[in-house]
Design brief:
The chain is mainly alpha-helical and about 60 residues long. Helix content is about 75%, strand content about 0%.
């Protein structure tokens, strides 16, 4: 696995922000919503990383 693309880094940072909101209780939504958004952004970031890695493997 090569370097992480910028899009995946942004998605990982967004996922960490969702986790931060979940654990601090800041915001209007429930913890379940924040954690599901955390996992969603994390999974999309990993998929983006792997697909970019596969596309650049020539």
């Amino acid at each position: 696995m090569k370097r992480i693309p910028v899009g995946s880094i942004i998605l990982f940072i967004a996922a960490l922000l969702w986790a931060f909101l979940s654990f601090t209780g800041i915001g209007n939504w429930s913890t379940r919503v924040y954690m599901s958004l955390f996992f969603l952004f994390l999974i999309i970031g990993v998929i983006n990383w792997r697909m970019t890695d596969r596309a650049n493997s020539d």
